[in-house]
Amino acid sequence: MSQNFDKNRDRDSLNTPWVGRFAPSPSGPLHLGSLVAALASFFIAKQRGGQWLLRIEDLDPPRVVEGADQSILQSLEDFGLEWDGPVVYQSHNFARYQTRLMELMEKSIVYGCDCSRKQVEERTGGSYDGYCKERGLLSVSGDKSIAYRVDFSDGKHQFNDQVQGLCEFSSPSDCHDFIIKRKDGLYAYQLAVVCDDIEQGVNHVVRGYDILDSTPRQNFLYQCFAQAEPIYFHIPLVKNDMGIKFSKSAGSQAIESNKASELLVTALGHLGQKTEAAMLTAKPRELIAHFVKHWQTENLPSNLNR
Ligand SMILES: [Zn+2]
Question: Is position 2 within any domain?
Fold first, then answer.
């Protein structure tokens, strides 16, 4: 299951046409943290003449806020960010996830689980603990969760993050079994993201450092599907004055289009790019065009140094 770190593969991949993506969940409007992720993924793709795809991650209906997708698209336009191709909605892709899930079931790499969320929470405080691993509950009837069996028996899992450097995961405490389809029938984030990125030809993934721990899980899925893993860039999170990460759930403020240039300069500064006072009065599209030319991926600060 583990994969040896292959520097040559990474180097080759860096020379192929790039397909990147921005994949917000429509649980609220864009905030400064998501703008930072959008910009980093946009410039990294565009600087190599690549494509920047947009995917709305509306997997979890109770968390979807009506109209949030349209508000996100409008904000991206107001901030001068144009995506390539049609907007993809995960809620339209359930058949694809099911097909991939059947592939995993045939490989016996998954198992059924009948734990309720409450039971798991009482045992572990949150994440799944592999309780049903040996209970033989796998069935196609769809009334149980389906979990992926993580196996570190042949060593550790490494990947070379382009911002954070070599990342290594080796024990069940680093990465344990995880649910890929929920008891209520919803597909889990880990499975959906991998299926969509494969389908859309995404070969590099730029996202917040808080997703770093998901990466080995997603890489395991890539290996199961016999697909090359993408190149990863895990970028530093934007925190507010209290040191708390900006996110929709933390009630962070929506970015305002009438302050687009100011916010772009703030976000680009956070990403280690060279900004100047004159940029504050430039149009968003002019700023974006400037940074397509002058973006410096090597200036991205890593979390570990901050
Ligand atoms: Zn269970």
Answer: no
**DSSP symbols for 93-115:** -HHHHHHHHHHHHHTT-EEEE--
- Ligand 1 centroid – CA 129 distance (Å): 8
Q: Report the domain count for the chain.
A: 1
What's the CA-to-centroid distance between 152 and ligand 1, angstroms? 20
Give the residue numbers spanning the domain of 279. 7-305
Q: What is the pLDDT of residue 252?
A: 63
Write down the H helix ranges in 156-244: 189-199, 214-224
Start-to-end Cα distance in the chain: 32
Q: What is the pLDDT of residue 194?
A: 98
Q: Count of CB atoms within 10 A of residue 64's CB?
A: 17
Q: For 239-289, write each residue's pLDDT tens digit.
A: 655 555 655 445 567 889 999 999 999 999 999 999 999 999 999 999 999
Query: Could you identify the residue written with the tokens 């997708």?
Result: 69
Residue of 166 and 252 predicted with greater confidence: 166
Question: Residues, the chain, total?
Answer: 306
Q: For residue 114, report the distance from its CA to the centre of ligand 1, in Å.
A: 5
The answer to whether residue 65 scores a pLDDT higher than 70 is: yes
- H or E segment at 129? none
List Cβ neighbours of 158 (8 Å cut-off, separation of 6 or more). Answer: 2, 3, 4, 5, 166, 167, 168, 169
| Residue 1 resides in a domain | no
In a domain, 173, yes or no: yes
Question: Is residue 207 assigned to a domain?
Answer: yes
Dihedral angle, C-alpha 32, 38, 40, 41, nearest 10 ° = 160
- Calculate ∠ Cα 194-209-303, nearest 5°: 150
pTM of the predicted model, to two decimals? 0.89
Q: Is the dihedral of CA 254, 255, 256, 257 positive or negative?
A: negative
Q: Domain with 160 in it: what CATH number?
A: 3.40.50.620
**How many whole angstroms from 132 Cα to the centroid of ligand 1?**
4
